[in-house]
């Protein structure tokens, strides 16, 4: 039997290597291929599926993490701060400090 770390490494390589390999092969030809209608349709399909995947991850993340009023308020405040173009390190630091004050150090 394989140790868990080796299995995890093989799975990671298997998931990411194919897309990385295709990307490395196609990048030099992208300028020539971006005018081809079939390539444009393919890029639109990939973009659509990526947006759908992100929406599903956002939905699942929100369902799992937005479980009480303080978390919902902190998420809303973080979105508002991003909208107001406040620097991300300040948002993260503030969220971390508020989480420790509200929930304790390790829940």
What is the helix fraction of residues, given as a range?
over 70%
Report the mean per-residue pLDDT as an integer. Answer: 89
What value does the Rg take, in angstroms? 21 Å
Distance between the termini: 37 Å
| Strand element count | 0
Largest sheet: none
In short:
It is built from five helices and no strands. With 107 residues, the protein is mainly α. Helix 4 packs antiparallel against helix 5.
Structural features, described:
This protein is mainly α and 107 residues long. The chain has a domain at 66-107. It is built from five helices and no strands. Helix 4 packs antiparallel against helix 5 (88-103). The radius of gyration is 21 Å and the shape is extended. The mean pLDDT is 89.
Provide keyphrases for this structure:
107 residues; mainly alpha; extended
Helices and strands in order:
Layout: H1 4-26, H2 30-33, H3 37-65, H4 69-83, H5 88-103
Helix pairs in contact: 4-5
